[in-house]
Specification:
The protein is built from 4 helices and 9 strands. The two termini are about 15 Å apart. It is globular. Helices cover about 20% and strands about 35% of the residues. A hairpin with a 2-residue loop joins strand 2 and strand 3. The protein has one domain: RNA polymerase II/Efflux pump adaptor protein, barrel-sandwich hybrid domain (OB fold (Dihydrolipoamide Acetyltransferase, E2P)), CATH 2.40.50.100. A 6-stranded antiparallel beta sheet has the order 1-2-3-9-8-5. A 3-stranded antiparallel beta sheet has the order 4-6-7. It is α+β, with helices and mostly antiparallel strands.
Length: about 130
Amino acid sequence: MYPDELKYTASHEWIEVAGDEARVGISDYAQHQLSDIVYVELPEVGRKVKKGEAVAVVESSKMAADCYSPLSGEIIAVNESLEESPELINTSPYGDGWLFRIRMSNPDEVGQLLDAGKYQSTLDEEH
């Protein structure tokens, strides 16, 4: 159900690692919980963040939710398409609906992330 090539956090972010960079978004589960996403506040490019730090806000017709950086590093890109089309997170959470890219300052943190099976297990425990 969740792409095996990605890593996940218990706070429902997904991470696609490529070298010393990673692309980050929110999981399909998270976008379903939020429902119709109407606005996204993205971090500034160049911002240095620590693992677990709130870096973005996703707002839906139901609520606003913080998104946390799954890794420490520097924000190197944001998905500017979300400014005009925040609903991309609903329609393509693992594709066009990504939030930001980060250059990792501590690649060892990747080993602390969940694989798809463990992420699914945390969801099963919640319900």
